Amino acid sequence: MSKTKLEEINRNIYDIKNKDEYDFKIKKGLTPEIIEEISMQKKDPDWMRKFRLKALETYNKLELPTWGPDISELDMNQIATYVRPKTTLSNSWEDVPEDIKNTFDKLGIPEAEKRSLSGVGAQYDSEVVYHSMREDLAKKGVIYTDMETAVRDYPELVKKHFMKCVPVNDHKFVALHGAVWSGGSFVYVPKGVKVDIPLQSYFRLNSPESGQFEHTLIIVDEGASLHFIEGCSAPKYNKINLHAGCVELYVKDNAYLRYSTIENWSKNMLNLNTKKAIVGKNAKMDWVSGSFGSKISMLYPMSILNGEGAKTEYTGISFAGAGQNLDNGFKVVHNNKNTSSVVNAKSISKNGGKCTYRSQVRINENAKGAKSSVSCESLMLDDISISDTIPVNDIRTDDVEFSHEAKIGKISDKTIFYLMSRGMSEEDAKAMIVRGFAYPISKELPVEYAVEMNNLINLELEGAIG
Amino acid sequence: MSNTLLEIKDLYVNAEEKEILKGINLKINKGEIHVIMGPNGSGKTTTANSILNNPMYTKQKGKIIFEGKDITNLKTDEIAREGIFMSFQLPEEIPGVSVTNFLKYAKSKISKKPVKIFEFKEELKKYMEELKMNPKNMERSLNVGFSGGEKKKNEILQMLVLNPELAILDETDSGLDVDAIKTVSKGIQMFKTKKNAVLIITHNTKILNSLDVDYVHVLVDGKIVKTGSADLAKEIEEKGYEQYK
Amino acid sequence: MILNETPVRTAKNFNINNIKLDSFSMPQKIEPFSNVILSKNGKKVKIEEDTDSINLVYGLGKDFLCQVKENANQKLKITIDENKKEDLQIDFEFNNKNKMLVEDIQIIANKNSKLTVIIKYTSNEQIENYHNGIIRVNAKENARVNIIFVNFMNDISNNFIAIENELEQNAKINYCIVDFGGKNSITNYYSNLLKDNSENKINCIYLGKNNELFDLNYIAELRGKKTNVEIEVQGALTDNAKKHFKGTINFKKGAKKAKGNENENCMLLTDTAKSIALPMLLCSEEDVEGNHSSSAGKVSEKELFYIMSRGFTKKEAMKLMVRARFNKILECIENEELKNEILNKVDERLD
User: Fold this and answer.
1) Which of A366, A408, A410 to mutate to test the interface with C (most CBs of C within 10 A)?
2) CB of B57 within 8 A of CB of B46?
3) What is the per-residue pLDDT across B213-244, written as a single tens digit (0 to 9) for each?
4) Could you give the count of Cα atoms lying within 13 Å of B219 in the half-sphere of its Cβ?
5) In whole angstroms, what is the distance from residue C3 CA to residue C14 CA?
6) Which of B50, B133, B216, C41 is 20 to 30 A away from residue B168, measured at CA?
7) Beta-sheet strands, E only, within C252-349
8) Are A221 and A251 in contact, with CB atoms under 8 Å apart?
9) What is the pLDDT of residues C266-323, one digit of tens each?
10) Residues of C in contact with A390 (CB under 8 A)
11) Distance (Å, rounded) from C-alpha A113 to C-alpha A129?
12) Phi/psi of residue C210, each to 5°?
């Protein structure tokens, strides 16, 4: 069964390379002139233009990280930071140009929209090309639009929240993002409104030697709830592409937000993304994250538990194959009484790939009654791969319950024998064990995405197991 | 057509470079129930694992013939698909794979055809009732957090679902209470027909009481030292293995 | 000054890649230290004083290494001959006339030898002392080495120690480290499990009070097949004491069937005590088993209530629970006298 399934899935759907046709592509590099040009092209309001220039100054002042994967091959002079596709934003798939629409069709986005989503945004290179949402949600006051429209139409909301959760000086690539950001989604869910079917934004980077810098800003107001799904992919090129998006999430008192990501960037991508959430009183922020693509990934979503009784859960898996260095993890700061965090992180390394789980749990002085439990499991599928676990546990008060557990190892021969005694081949047995290993993550996703994730796992396992 | 199901000929097996089996000969016909008894370390589990060709054991000499086919060096999954099932002494835990999904997948492999979901679930339900299993266990991860008794019953459930020609039960009764042992023997009775056979490996005779045992073999130090009828089991229960050492 | 770097860096703002001591400066002039008693199987002895030149893989930092190389005021080389068995004790006692100790201890346990050595540092007088030491241990084939390392320095002193072990085929080294402070108590511990079947167990207890700072940087690299490392750290912090624990188990390529376990637990006895832990597992080999666990929190209210219901005051109950936590680790010390001394110190420090 699995064997035939393996043949059915085709990496090619992610690898469709459209001709590098664009309406406008900024010249490579990073200078104040280039930033001015982007700002002009994007018809920014003046405050945004100034914001970008200031961010560039910060970028120039900050150092590259002195830890983690080596990203010295990234040369910003070789990256075009803004590529406008040959289309304008539309709210009907019919109006999206044929080749772009085909790409999203093959990725299954319009189909998913019909079946299991209440709204979809689709970004192609630097601009959002499609955005739509069910009408009933609009009537309830839910806003789901591209970031540029938000800057124009909701200046007060945006100004109040834009890069306040993730400050520009957070690290060098956040500053870069601040200077060149383009596209992304803006969501506002009004007080008490429960969006019961997920919204999804899909990010596709087609243009070679370019970067994608989308900005996602979500505000879930008091007592409201939302499930947001983010998907990403790109065709593979020989030269480096860069993704330095920024996700800012505000989960107000008693609200709930689940943010799910299936990341399948091509293996020439440097994924230096930043995601943070500020969580209010008795609110809950859940992260579900599947990381399959990218050459290098440095991604550490963060929950800042500011309200009393705020909760967060992180469920994530990384799967690194040949030539991949996935440095992922989670950060949480407990900033109030009775806050809680649960982390369940898994990784799989094969064919010389490297997975690192890097994290920080910080329980501050004022977080009496805080609880935190962290569990990490790493699976090694061969002896040429690498798996590291680097967690920091920073406990600054006594009235806490904190525990951390990590395990590393291979699939046991006994388990394989057991499954083989039930008629499965060694390959099938291993694939079944790996899918089971990833199940805690796939079960958190809507069915279609869980299937996609299992397909990605099968795809990644193909050839790796013998 | 021959009535012989399994034949082991002069089998020598090492585990971690230590010689465990020193010339086993055994013949099992369709419709029979065989029992292998023996003290700890005599090679009972090795015998079972060798039939399934567990790579942790290496065969030095000898042959295993199943339904006229030499299966000595087949891979474990191939042997399973030939129709041999083994109930494990310590069943493995597989997180994230539900009992239903696991069995459905295994069934499709063994029967070499797709499984019809509805019928399959009905069949499963029926067996679980007979085995007094909690239906909620079906959606739980295979063996994860199961008690010792639940794990063993789950093995019997798998045997019933996969319906092999030969079922090898490796210490399926160990660590079970009286009621659970009864349930397990009931499972074996349900399974048993004239066309298949059962090989029970055990320490104690309780499980044999309600079964119609044809042969009892005494295994000591890697060799079958005596073969007899069901009465032999009773004798061993009374006198132990001393006389065979 | 900045010292005790971890073998792998993580984000700078996590503040754990190294330790920064603002109010400390290294003494430039090292005074003599002579208050050391060496005893062998209970009797006083002299030990060879010429050690081999030092090269550390990790260590606390260049300055500390140079100071030991150039200005050591105690050098001890202990060689245990093949098939021999020895029991040794080395007592360093700080006082008014012996305020600075810079020592270089080298231990070579030859094939099939057995050694138990107690190394103890005491400062009973309330004066500021300084200790910078390096202990090197080489356990040859099939050697068994037990080291009981006891730090009883007072809470205004500075304690720096770098330990480095190399293990050959089938060698076993057990450490029992009792770290009861100093204003700064900084440890760098490194084991190289070079050859097959070698084994290293580390049991550590620490107890911090006042403004004491502990920085424990334990590193084990497994290279040989079927090598085994176990790190067990139990600690308690009261007042404003602060602890950094950095534990690294690194499975190098080739360490097939190796095992590494690390368990770290910190009892926080006041709401101003602070604990940072970085339990790292690094792995470049498939066929290994690595586990770590780490926990922190206060004494369980239930347990506390239970003990108090038996007529103990809260303070007594706390002491009892800390002692209970430590007891398991102290089981590896056979010397009853020393064990009692340690437990008394626990009571004393928690008064």
Assistant:
1) A408
2) yes
3) 999 999 999 999 999 998 998 888 888 888 88
4) 28
5) 16
6) B133
7) 259-268, 274-283, 289-297
8) no
9) 999 999 999 999 999 999 999 999 999 999 999 888 888 888 888 888 889 999 999 9
10) 8, 10, 278, 280
11) 15
12) 45, -130
pTM as predicted: 0.90
The reply to whether A7 falls in a domain is no
Smallest Cβ–Cβ distance between A437 and the set B75, B88, B95 belongs to B95
Share of chain B above pLDDT 90, in %: 68
CA distance A185 to A148: 9
Q: HEC profile for A174-194?
A: HHHHHHHCCCCEEEEECCCCE
B227 and A CB contact within 8 Å: no
Q: Is residue A288 in a domain? A: yes
pLDDT value of residue B176:
86
Residue A265, domain member (yes or no)? yes
CATH of domain B4-244: 3.40.50.300
Q: Measured between beta carbons, which residues in chain B are less than 8 angstroms from residue A440?
A: 96
Residue A432, chain B, CB below 8 Å: the answer is yes
SS3 readout for B177-195: CHHHHHHHHHHHHHHCCCC
Going by C-alpha positions, the residue among A302, A339, A299 that lies closest to residue A317 is A299
| C345 pLDDT more than 80 | yes
Strand partners, B61: B12
Q: At what angle do helices C336-350 and C314-330 cross, to 10 degrees?
A: 150
C28 touching chain A per CB within 8 A: no
Any domain includes A236? yes
All chains having 3 or more CB pairs closer than 8 angstroms to chain C: A
Chain B contact for A407, CB < 8 A? Answer: no
**Residues 6 or more apart in contact with residue A160 via CB below 8 angstroms:** none
Residue C86: Cβ-neighbour burial (10 angstroms; 0-12, 13-18, 19+): middle
Note whether A440 contacts B96, CB cutoff 8 Å. yes
Query: C221 to chain A nearest CA, in Å?
Result: 13
For A356, nearest residue in chain C (alpha carbons): C282
For the ranges A74-83, B174-183, C237-246, the lowest mean pLDDT is seen at: B174-183
Residue ranges making up the domain that contains A176: 24-464
Chains C and B touch (3+ CB pairs under 8 A): no
- Give tens-digit pLDDT for C120-176: 999 989 999 999 999 999 999 999 999 999 999 999 999 999 999 999 999 999 999
**Positive or negative: CA dihedral A40, A42, A48, A54:** negative
Which residues does chain C have within 8 Å of residue A366's beta carbon, measured at their own beta carbons?
Answer: none
Structure tokens that stand for B91 in this block: 């069943």
Q: What is the mean pLDDT of chain C?
A: 94
One-letter amino acid of C41: N
Q: Pick the residue from chain A with its C-alpha nearest to C295.
A: A403
Tell how strand A211-212 and strand A241-243 pair up. Answer: parallel
Which of the 8 DSSP states describes residue A76? G
Domain total of chain A: 1
Q: Does A373 touch chain C (CB under 8 A)?
A: no
Can you say how many angstroms the Cα of residue B199 is from the centroid of all Cα atoms in its chain?
6
Mean pLDDT by 10 residues, chain A (466 residues): 37 76 90 95 95 97 94 92 90 87 85 85 90 91 95 95 96 97 96 94 90 96 96 86 96 97 90 97 96 94 98 96 95 98 96 96 96 96 95 95 95 94 93 91 79 77 50
Q: Which amino acid is at B12?
A: Y
Q: Which of C269, C271, C286 to mutate to test the interface with A (most CBs of A within 10 A)?
A: C286
Q: Note which residues in 268-327 of chain C have CB less than 8 A from chain A.
A: 268-298
- Would you say the C-alpha torsion B211, B217, B219, B223 has a positive or negative sign? negative
